[in-house]
Amino acid sequence: MDKPDTHDKPVATHGFDLDALHRRPQAPIQEADIALSVERLNLSYSGKPALRDIHFSIPRRRVTAFIGPSGCGKSSLLRCFNRMNDLVDGCVVSGRVMLEDTNIYLPTVDVSQLRRRVGMVFQKPNPFPMSIYENVAYGLRIQGINRRRHLDEIVEKSLRSAALWDEVKDRLQDNALGLSGGQQQRLVIARTIAVEPEMVLLDEPASSLDPISTLRIEELIYELRSKYTIVIVTHNMQQAARVSDMTAFMNLGRLVEYDSTDRLFTNPQQRQTEDYITGRYG
Amino acid sequence: MSVERKSLYLGRRGGIAHWFRSGEPMVWLNAGAVSFALLSVFGLLWLLAWHGLGHFWPRELLEFSVSREGELYTVLGEQVSRERVSTDQLRAVGVRTSASGKWELRRLVKRGNRDFLDTDFAWLLDSSIVEIRRPRAVMRVERLEWGNLYGRLLGIEDRGKPVATTAAADEAATWALFQALVAENEVMRAAIRDLEGEEVGRINFDMERLRLRERRLALAGEALPAELAERRRALEADYEVARQRLLTLYEQSERYSYRVALADGREVTLPLGQVVRAILPNDMGVLSKLNYYRVRLWEFLSDDPREANTEGGVYPAIFGTVLMVLLMSIMVTPFGVLAAVFLHEVAGQGRVTRVFRAAVNNLAGVPSIVYGIFGLGFFVYGVGGELDRLFFPEALPSPTYGTPGLMWASLTLALLTLPVVVVATEEGLARVPQSIREGSLALGATRAETLWRVVLPMASPAMMTGVILAVARAAGEVAPLMLVGVVKLAPTLPLDGNFPYLHLEQKFMHLGFHIYDVGFQSPNIEAARPLVYATALLLVVIIALLNLAAVALRNRLREHYAALDAPV
Ligand SMILES: Nc1ncnc2c1ncn2[C@@H]1O[C@H](COP(=O)(O)OP(=O)(O)O)[C@@H](O)[C@H]1O
Ligand SMILES: [Mg+2]
Domain count of chain A? Predict the structure, then answer.
């Protein structure tokens, strides 16, 4: 897969890298290629609404980015896709989130099974205090896969996919906490894709990392889209422009505009979007 | 700029007020408090070590000529202490003293020979002492009974016939023979102990089990199979063999006796089989004294007590203390962790949980004797009695578990230390970051799996901290133990070679109770006093060692699950 040149340059890209965007193949999204669709989704925390009437679909094997000011509900929406919000006391969700043909909010849905299909990477790297190997094998062991050969294989494959293998192959048994922040985040990605999810949710995965690590994560995301449906939350518009095919702009709990990244950044339809991406937003 | 300078100037002139404001008095106060605490601790340890460890050193033997009411008599023994006492006090208890001053010096002399004198300690007034000699050839004999003997060795007899005497100028040879016989005796005693403790102990144990089996069958109304009778005959035959061997050994050990001249001139003949060790303290070099010290210290640590715990060792008490603490830890950890997990992970954080948590925390303030009474009433009589009725009806009316024992003592202490473990574990659970839990859940782990695979391992150092505190509390606890299983003298260790090896229903000895017993229940206070110090020191050392072991374990866990302290 060819990478946009930007990734080899230093990060300080102040404007949008439109070249990179134009070089990206832009296959039109067909109905059948919908990975997940959200219908009339409302969410409130202890009665306080945080998401209002969200309605849109996420294409399969593409990168979809959520942008918007802090507190607009990006994380809340993302956490609806693997029902992470279930953990929050007082969080009430109404509406439907369809994965394939099932509404994941039906009471009959096995949440563990859902989370295996929809993996998640968090803002702060959160490796377990175990060896690098065990971190990656964790999700498999949970599923009862304990055969050493099988594990070895998957661990290597996942670490390679996460572009971490070369750096850690000689110290797989070392504690994962000894890795740098960027390496930890890639380890978390490796851990997530080790269970072969269909979809990977990333909530500001690079916001706590240095520029070089951020670049590597972005490269990685770009490569992973050939196999996984990726949804990424970012407050960094350049990042959204660099890595995503589709972008959704959110504000005050509403989905303001949703379009292909190209169009959203070059030709926004809404006034709010334009204000935000041109930096006029308060 | 000028303002700053001005305030600096004022500060200097402010004197005491400034000094107080500077916070320096607080520093001094803190340093003082720390030094005081350290001094107290080291002072305590020094006191225990000085009195306790000095006991095993062979003191020189002194021979005092004492005049009392015109009569001259001789006292031979070890000078234990010397103190000042007021003459008025002496007169009040009827001691006639020739001294004219207000104060008199007196010394406490251990003169032993309890079988020939009315007391083995004597107070000698300095004013009554005519002469102090330091004879070379006086011996100190440690015996199985009657305490120490002090005197001069005259000779050795073989079934009443003299085989060696010190009179015939072969003093050294007689002494050598005496030592050789004592050593031989020691070997024989070990053989007797092995026979009695292991062989006969095993036979008795099997016999008792056989009896219980017969009774169980009888209770069930079943016929006794023939093999039981056969088995009984075999055991009886075994016992006869062991008894014969024991008799032979006893007879051998009674063969020799030794003649001694006591300080008052009496000459007595005593059985050599009773001698544990004999030395000539005034004739010993520093090296042989050191060696003797080592031997006696080791005896203290590794041997059974003798003579109502005032002689010999404390091994069974060490064993009992350590075993009880280990069992307690094994019991309290799962309960404490389960309770903490329930309070922190399972139950909602509502009012009920808060009340519950407060109740658990307050359990730590309940006096330990209350736990003892609860243990006796609930565990021993309630649970134990029920167990006996259900599982050991053949042994009734003599109780098996319905009587104080190791299991109930450990369980009672586990209950006593439960709050500590719960609180510490809860703190550990609270410190596991939400992000780590979410990471696990996001991989499809259930809450239980997350708890088991990530949260509990990460909280394990905190659990160990709880166990450390529990051990520290339990090892030093005595009051409740007196009610639920500790005894002054247990005939056997609770861990032995007889199935099921660990006898949880047995009573056991404990260093803390041993201190109390030797110190306050002993018939011979002066003899027991040094042992009280030594045992107290030992208990402190053992608690420290148990704690160190737990701390080492915790540090290893911490290293392993360093996430909580590592900057991310
Ligand atoms: N656990 C929670 N409990 C209560 N309110 C929350 C919680 N998480 C988020 N919120 C609120 O929901 C709104 C959206 O938050 P979030 O989804 O985190 O925004 P973003 O990720 O876009 O910054 C905010 O107003 C925030 O205060
Ligand atoms: Mg967010």
Answer: 1
